């Protein structure tokens, strides 16, 4: 006999959710509803897939009946559907007519419906269309109807409002009391970033909006999400919830992606292996990370984020840190003057981006050059890619062992941590996890290989690498204020000297 298999509560993750499927955000819902019920404008912003559209649906579309009782109609417009501001304004009228029809308002009872229909049937110039749309919403206002225009994917305004007219026309729809409508925009970027793009300068459009910035779930909201598994009599242990928090950091989309795989494994009758389940879901995490990094790369935001997380801080400011915290990309580490990414897994991914980005060229060129030099010389000597194990076997005398004590073990530990979090995306180069002091110790055990390039004896380089290590640690934790200016200047001088010597012998390109 056919046995019905329980459905996966997270099967449709990534879609807009509302009603019983919606989790948390009660404070944001109240704020959003209070704003629109007074015809004020609100921008919902946040990183991709953080739940912006779901919030707008839950607050303004799902309670349709209660809004209609107050004579509010909510219009949902997807901005990429429109090629310019002409089409958007016609779309506002078209959606309003549909909403009024669904609300039971008949043409015979409301002259403003005929005004809207006539407007859509004419091919008007932009000026006449704009005036006609204002008159239409003025008639609605006179009939005690209030309008909420929710515009999703408002980032697209950078493309279709390049002359700035669309921004000003929307602003006028809210600014003038006679036809005032409440506008809600949904975007990844702030309105200031959107209106500053391209040739648009000094737009006052963002000034009429209050921003509601969406972050990831807190731990209680994440637990509420996990409790949806009770629908199929499936319960996660605390250790599994902690694992979910470490990997996804409360991000709704990533959490649901992982929960879908966890639930599928359970429904298939498999024994739960969190690490295996995560490997199944990892590709979805990496696709999301790449998309997010691409958005940050459009400006200097990615550089500043990497500086704040990994140092050295050269251009990032406290305001930048507050911005990333507001958008839920970083969080403050309790009892420390430091920050971390929203999840440990995302932070490890950014470390791989940081190694490729080389946002502080002089420092990164120095470290990268030393790693290339060591790798080349050791491969030449041992005639093998696996030169580390051969070196460890060869150095049997106590003095040389003492120099390298713990260096490779520490690097392997860091590498394993990255491997656990990023899998195939982790660096395979052990030296990527060595700091300047570690690199110097590796060279010291076989200085004859490096003397022709660095010229001086190890004792002459002791101070240089001591300063580099001293400066590198606090700067990597973005605490550059704890580094004396004199030490920093000396470190930069040593970097320049090392880079000069290395360029003579090896190509750093």
Detailed description of the structure:
This protein is an alpha/beta fold and 509 residues long. The chain folds into three domains: 25-213, Rossmann fold (3-Layer(aba) Sandwich); 219-354, no CATH class; 360-505, no CATH class. The chain has 24 helices and seven strands. The chain has helices spanning 26-36, 52-61, 64-69, 85-102, 111-121, 126-142, 157-160, 165-175, 191-195, 219-226, 238-248, 252-267, 274-296, 301-310, 318-326, 344-357, 361-382, 387-394, 398-403, 407-422, 436-444, 451-454, 458-476, 485-505; strands at 41-45, 72-78, 146-152, 182-187, 209-213, 330-332, 339-341. The strands form two sheets. The protein has a five-stranded parallel β-sheet with strand order 2-3-4-1-5, with helices on both faces. A two-stranded antiparallel sheet has the order 6-7. A hairpin with a 6-residue loop joins strand 6 (330-332) and strand 7 (339-341). The protein starts with 25 loop residues before the first helix and ends with a helix.
Features:
3 domains; 57% helix; Rossmann fold; 5-stranded parallel β-sheet; 509 residues; two-stranded antiparallel ribbon; 24 helices; alpha/beta; 7 strands; elongated
Summarize the entry for a quick read.
By secondary structure, the chain is an alpha/beta fold.
Helix fraction, binned, reads 55-70%
Mean pLDDT score: 86
- Specify the CATH architecture of the largest domain: 3-Layer(aba) Sandwich
Query: Looking at the chains present, what oligomeric state does this protein adopt?
Result: single chain
Low-confidence stretches: 477-482
Counting DSSP E segments of at least 2 residues, the number of strands comes to 7
Largest sheet: 5 strands, parallel
């Amino acid at each position: 006999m056919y046995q019905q298999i329980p459905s996966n509560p997270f099967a449709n993750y990534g879609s807009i959710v509302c009603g019983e499927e919606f989790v948390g955000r009660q404070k944001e819902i109240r704020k959003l509803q209070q704003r629109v019920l007074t015809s004020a404008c609100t921008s919902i912003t946040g990183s991709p897939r953080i739940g912006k559209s779901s919030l707008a649906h839950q607050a303004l579309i799902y309670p349709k009946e209660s809004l209609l009782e107050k004579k509010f109609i909510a219009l949902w417009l997807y901005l990429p559907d429109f090629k310019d501001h002409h089409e958007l304004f016609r779309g506002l009228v078209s959606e309003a007519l549909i909403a009024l029809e669904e609300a039971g308002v008949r043409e015979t009872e409301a002259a403003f419906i005929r005004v809207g229909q006539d407007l859509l049937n004419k091919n008007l110039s932009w000026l006449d269309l704009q005036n006609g749309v204002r008159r239409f919403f003025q008639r609605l206002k006179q009939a005690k109807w209030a309008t909420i225009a929710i515009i999703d994917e408002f980032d697209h305004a950078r493309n279709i409002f390049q002359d700035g007219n669309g921004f000003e026309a929307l602003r006028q729809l809210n600014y003038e009391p006679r036809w005032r409508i409440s506008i809600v925009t949904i975007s990844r970027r702030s309105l200031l970033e959107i209106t500053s793009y391209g040739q648009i300068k000094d737009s006052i459009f963002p000034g009429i909006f209050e921003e509601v910035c969406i972050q990831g779930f807190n731990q209680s909201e994440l637990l509420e999400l996990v409790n949806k598994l009770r629908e199929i009599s499936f319960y996660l242990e605390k250790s599994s919830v902690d694992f979910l928090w470490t990997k996804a950091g409360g991000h709704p989309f990533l959490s649901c992606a992982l929960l879908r795989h966890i639930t599928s494994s359970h429904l298939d009758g498999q024994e739960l292996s969190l690490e295996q389940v995560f490997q199944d879901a990892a590709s979805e995490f990496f696709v999301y990370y790449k998309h997010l990094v691409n958005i940050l790369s459009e400006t200097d935001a990615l550089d500043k984020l990497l500086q704040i997380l990994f140092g050295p801080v050269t251009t990032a400011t406290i305001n930048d840190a507050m911005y990333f915290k507001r958008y839920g990309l970083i969080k403050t580490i309790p009892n420390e003057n430091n920050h971390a990414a929203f999840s440990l897994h995302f932070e490890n991914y950014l470390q791989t981006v940081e190694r490729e980005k080389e946002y502080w060229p002089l420092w990164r060129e120095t470290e990268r050059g030393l790693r290339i030099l060591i790798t080349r010389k050791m491969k030449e000597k041992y005639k093998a890619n696996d030169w580390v194990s051969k070196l460890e076997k060869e150095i049997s005398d106590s003095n040389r062992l003492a120099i390298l004590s713990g260096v490779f073990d520490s690097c392997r530990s860091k590498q394993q941590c990255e491997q656990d979090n990023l899998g195939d995306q982790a660096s395979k180069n052990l030296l990527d996890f060595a700091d300047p002091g570690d690199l110097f110790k590796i060279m010291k055990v076989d200085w004859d290989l490096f003397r022709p390039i660095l010229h001086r004896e190890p004792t002459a380089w002791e101070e240089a690498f001591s300063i580099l290590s001293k400066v590198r640690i606090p700067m990597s934790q973005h605490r550059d204020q704890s580094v004396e200016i004199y030490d920093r200047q000396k470190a930069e001088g040593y970097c320049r000297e090392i880079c000069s010597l290395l360029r003579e012998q090896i190509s750093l390109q």
